Amino acid sequence: MRWLKPLVFAASLLPLVWLGWQAAYGSLGVNPVETLNRTLGDWALRFLLLAVAVTPLRQWTGWAPLARLRRMMGLFAFFYVSLHLASYVGVDLFFDWAALWKDVVKRTYITLGMGCFLLLLPLALTSTDGMIRRLGGKAWRKLHRLVFPAAILGVAHFWMMVKADLREPVVYALVLAVLLGWRLRAFLRAPQRA
Amino acid sequence: MLIRPAADLRENDVTDQALYLDRRRFLAGAAAAGTLLGAGRGLRAATSDDTPTPFEAVTTYNNYYEFGTAKEDPAVNAPGRLKTAPWSVAVDGECAKPGTIGLEDLIKPVKVEDRIYRLRCVEGWSMVIPWRGVQLSEVLKRFEPTSKAKFVEFTTLADREQMPGLRIPVLDWPYVEGLRLDEAMHPLTLLATGLYGKDLLAQNGAPLRLVVPWKYGFKSIKSIVRIRFTAAQPVNSWQKYNPREYGFYSNVNPEVDHPRWSQANERRIGEFRRRPTLMFNGYGDQVAGLYAGMDLKANH
Fold first, then answer.
1. Are B135 and B121 in contact, with CB atoms under 8 Å apart?
2. What pLDDT, in 10s, does the model give residues B213-222?
3. How many domains does chain B have?
4. At CB < 8 Å, which residues of chain B contact A?
5. Chain B residue whose CA is closest to A160
6. What number is the ipTM of this complex?
7. Cβ(B110)–Cβ(B141) under 8 Å?
8. Which domain holds residue B213?
9. Which CATH number covers residue B221?
10. How confident is the model over B7-53, as pLDDT tens digits?
């Protein structure tokens, strides 16, 4: 299974490589800033759901090596969320900090998206082996449950941003609901482990 | 910043497309160089004119939900599906001479003009489009609206055979828009049949669409099959969908935000930096009088 992690790592970089390629060749479409921002947001949400999906998938398939991908998926989620935020602040708003602050306090979907980023930040910072040791497994696991509210905020952010056609956000919401439902069931069945 | 009143923009202001593309390429190069040099602030100055948006962009980046909700959908789904000939428009309601009239007969008696207008979408992007069409007032007069007529309601074609987007109940089809009669009779209001000197493409609302340049783009209803004079204010589709976010008037107004985003600025398609949005999309000189004394926030 030595190939698994490098392969998934390389595959996870493909969306970024593809975006960079399109940007370099001016093929991001008629509204390139919007395309860049939306595509980064799409992948941020996908990796966030993938990170949440790793454990349920491992339990359903019984394929133990999947566990080794969980940290990587979580960090890629944070990576794409950060790029999404950077493109919004740096490219879309062009570092107009006053406009950013107005957006954050006035626009609920921006507030939620920012909340998602802030919840993921401590998780990324405590993702190293050293931090796991320092925090202790129990406290670390507790802290990293923040990924669940972060995923909810991410889906809500997308849902509220959409103008009228809710089909896409509904798909993300359903996937998240199944994943969270599974976790909740496991949690309720084994309260002593909580 | 120089903004010419668009009514003064004439056909010979339309830059030849090839020349235009060259200029755009030069600007794109200059913009890229500017970014590299960290001279981002100068960018806006370099592109702050009202140069028409390239034909390619105008015809591939569209909101026409009857053909799909993604911007690229209408250009893919509408041509070949939307049957624009023969085309007729039913005119009825509060008027002395109602009737169903073929497109040719509707347009023929009226002088066809080329007019370059800014188009500001409620989503926060904008274009500059050289339209071809007729002044709506000239078209409406012949139906002799009565004194009861206070509004004009427009309806888009709704045909499941031709419009795959109708299968998804995103909006309550058919698409409906409306204007106050004086807005409809305003000399800036255009009934467009073409752009860039050619007939309208299906994705742009062929064969006949409204263009109201001082209002958000969704007011400029596409592929019109019915025009009705009414005494009561029509309920337009987006207002029906979400009255908090979309009103009847929907005048471009940088001071009245959409609940979910600011309307203070816009991204002109082809430009990198956002530019400030102008009151009434820059047509205040001509249209502000229509709304004298009105609360523009309450009547958004």
1. no
2. 999 999 999 9
3. 1
4. 28, 40, 56-57, 60-61, 65, 69, 71-72, 123, 125, 168, 170-171, 241, 257, 260-262, 264, 267, 269, 272-274
5. B260
6. 0.87
7. no
8. 6-291
9. 3.90.420.10
10. 545 444 554 454 444 444 444 444 443 333 333 333 343 345 899 99
